[in-house]
Amino acid sequence: MEKFVKVTDECTIAGQPSMQDLSELETKGYKTVINFRENGEGNQPISPQEEERIVKDLGMEYIHFPMNLKTLTMDDIIRFDKIYSGLQQPVFAHCQRGVRAAVLLLINYAEKANMNGEEILNYADKFKKHRCWRCYPQICR
User: Fold this and answer.
1) Where are the domains of the chain?
2) What is the pLDDT of residues 72-100, one digit of tens each?
Protein backbone atom coordinates (compact mmCIF):
# COMPACT_ATOMS: atom_id res chain seq x y z
CA MET A 1 0.00 0.00 0.00
CA GLU A 2 2.93 2.35 -0.60
CA LYS A 3 0.80 4.29 -3.08
CA PHE A 4 -1.51 5.48 -0.31
CA VAL A 5 -1.14 9.06 0.97
CA LYS A 6 -2.48 10.10 4.36
CA VAL A 7 -4.01 13.56 3.91
CA THR A 8 -5.16 13.85 7.53
CA ASP A 9 -5.55 11.40 10.40
CA GLU A 10 -9.08 10.84 9.13
CA CYS A 11 -8.42 10.47 5.41
CA THR A 12 -6.12 8.63 3.02
CA ILE A 13 -6.09 8.98 -0.77
CA ALA A 14 -4.83 6.72 -3.53
CA GLY A 15 -5.21 5.68 -7.09
CA GLN A 16 -7.30 2.65 -8.03
CA PRO A 17 -6.94 0.04 -5.29
CA SER A 18 -6.44 -3.61 -6.15
CA MET A 19 -8.71 -6.34 -4.82
CA GLN A 20 -6.02 -7.08 -2.23
CA ASP A 21 -5.87 -3.40 -1.21
CA LEU A 22 -9.63 -3.35 -0.69
CA SER A 23 -9.50 -6.49 1.43
CA GLU A 24 -6.79 -4.91 3.64
CA LEU A 25 -8.66 -1.66 4.27
CA GLU A 26 -10.97 -3.04 6.93
CA THR A 27 -8.10 -4.66 8.84
CA LYS A 28 -6.28 -1.32 8.76
CA GLY A 29 -9.27 0.32 10.45
CA TYR A 30 -10.93 2.17 7.57
CA LYS A 31 -14.66 2.68 7.98
CA THR A 32 -15.59 4.25 4.63
CA VAL A 33 -14.43 3.99 1.02
CA ILE A 34 -15.13 6.82 -1.45
CA ASN A 35 -14.78 6.15 -5.17
CA PHE A 36 -14.57 9.23 -7.42
CA ARG A 37 -14.34 7.25 -10.67
CA GLU A 38 -17.07 7.58 -13.27
CA ASN A 39 -18.95 4.53 -14.53
CA GLY A 40 -17.30 3.06 -17.61
CA GLU A 41 -13.94 4.81 -17.22
CA GLY A 42 -11.08 3.10 -18.99
CA ASN A 43 -8.55 1.05 -17.05
CA GLN A 44 -11.11 0.27 -14.36
CA PRO A 45 -10.45 -3.29 -13.17
CA ILE A 46 -13.32 -3.19 -10.68
CA SER A 47 -16.65 -1.57 -11.57
CA PRO A 48 -18.12 0.80 -8.96
CA GLN A 49 -20.95 -1.68 -8.43
CA GLU A 50 -18.56 -4.57 -7.79
CA GLU A 51 -16.40 -2.39 -5.55
CA GLU A 52 -19.48 -1.42 -3.55
CA ARG A 53 -20.37 -5.08 -3.04
CA ILE A 54 -16.83 -5.95 -1.91
CA VAL A 55 -16.55 -2.98 0.44
CA LYS A 56 -19.94 -3.59 2.03
CA ASP A 57 -19.19 -7.31 2.40
CA LEU A 58 -16.10 -6.25 4.36
CA GLY A 59 -18.32 -4.20 6.68
CA MET A 60 -17.39 -0.73 5.51
CA GLU A 61 -19.51 2.11 4.16
CA TYR A 62 -19.22 2.83 0.42
CA ILE A 63 -19.78 6.14 -1.36
CA HIS A 64 -19.66 6.45 -5.13
CA PHE A 65 -19.19 10.14 -6.00
CA PRO A 66 -18.37 10.08 -9.73
CA MET A 67 -16.77 13.29 -10.91
CA ASN A 68 -14.69 14.89 -13.62
CA LEU A 69 -12.33 17.75 -12.77
CA LYS A 70 -13.11 19.48 -16.05
CA THR A 71 -16.75 19.87 -15.05
CA LEU A 72 -16.35 20.26 -11.25
CA THR A 73 -18.64 22.98 -9.91
CA MET A 74 -19.11 24.72 -6.59
CA ASP A 75 -22.36 22.75 -6.24
CA ASP A 76 -20.33 19.52 -6.50
CA ILE A 77 -17.98 20.73 -3.79
CA ILE A 78 -20.88 21.68 -1.50
CA ARG A 79 -22.64 18.36 -2.16
CA PHE A 80 -19.43 16.45 -1.37
CA ASP A 81 -18.90 18.43 1.83
CA LYS A 82 -22.38 17.48 3.04
CA ILE A 83 -21.75 13.81 2.28
CA TYR A 84 -18.24 13.79 3.76
CA SER A 85 -19.26 15.44 7.01
CA GLY A 86 -21.54 12.50 7.84
CA LEU A 87 -19.15 9.67 7.03
CA GLN A 88 -17.60 7.22 9.45
CA GLN A 89 -13.87 7.81 9.69
CA PRO A 90 -11.16 7.06 8.84
CA VAL A 91 -11.93 7.36 5.14
CA PHE A 92 -10.10 5.84 2.19
CA ALA A 93 -10.76 7.83 -1.02
CA HIS A 94 -9.63 6.99 -4.52
CA CYS A 95 -10.00 7.58 -8.24
CA GLN A 96 -7.81 6.31 -11.06
CA ARG A 97 -4.56 8.00 -9.99
CA GLY A 98 -5.59 9.89 -6.84
CA VAL A 99 -5.95 13.33 -8.42
CA ARG A 100 -9.72 13.76 -8.04
CA ALA A 101 -9.58 12.32 -4.53
CA ALA A 102 -6.78 14.74 -3.64
CA VAL A 103 -8.61 17.73 -5.08
CA LEU A 104 -11.90 17.25 -3.28
CA LEU A 105 -10.39 16.19 0.00
CA LEU A 106 -7.84 18.99 0.04
CA ILE A 107 -10.57 21.54 -0.74
CA ASN A 108 -12.66 20.05 2.06
CA TYR A 109 -9.76 20.11 4.53
CA ALA A 110 -8.61 23.61 3.56
CA GLU A 111 -12.12 25.02 3.88
CA LYS A 112 -12.55 23.57 7.37
CA ALA A 113 -9.11 24.84 8.41
CA ASN A 114 -9.75 28.29 6.85
CA MET A 115 -6.58 28.03 4.75
CA ASN A 116 -5.63 30.41 1.99
CA GLY A 117 -3.94 29.30 -1.22
CA GLU A 118 -0.40 29.67 0.13
CA GLU A 119 -1.26 27.68 3.27
CA ILE A 120 -2.78 24.93 1.13
CA LEU A 121 0.39 24.72 -0.98
CA ASN A 122 2.54 24.55 2.14
CA TYR A 123 0.35 21.82 3.60
CA ALA A 124 0.36 19.92 0.31
CA ASP A 125 4.18 19.90 0.18
CA LYS A 126 4.15 16.59 2.04
CA PHE A 127 2.45 14.98 -0.97
CA LYS A 128 5.11 15.89 -3.53
CA LYS A 129 6.12 12.27 -4.02
CA HIS A 130 2.59 11.29 -4.99
CA ARG A 131 1.59 11.82 -8.61
CA CYS A 132 -1.50 13.79 -7.54
CA TRP A 133 0.80 16.66 -6.45
CA ARG A 134 0.81 18.21 -9.91
CA CYS A 135 -2.81 19.34 -9.46
CA TYR A 136 -2.37 21.36 -6.26
CA PRO A 137 -0.80 24.57 -7.58
CA GLN A 138 -3.61 25.10 -10.12
CA ILE A 139 -6.32 24.45 -7.55
CA CYS A 140 -4.93 26.77 -4.93
CA ARG A 141 -4.84 29.79 -7.19
Assistant:
1) 5-140
2) 899 999 999 999 999 999 999 999 888 88
Q: Check pLDDT > 50 for residue 44.
A: yes
- Torsional sign, CA 3, 44, 75, 69: positive
| 114 phi, psi to nearest 5 deg | 55, 45
DSSP state, 17? P
Helices 99-112 & 117-124 angle (0-180, nearest 10): 130
Q: Which of 72, 65, 91, 118 lies closest to 4 in space, CA to CA?
A: 91
CA–CA dist 76, 72 (Å, integer): 6
CATH no., domain 5-140:
3.90.190.10
CA–CA–CA angle 129, 133, 135 (5° rounding): 165
d(Cα 84, Cα 129) in Å, to the nearest integer? 26
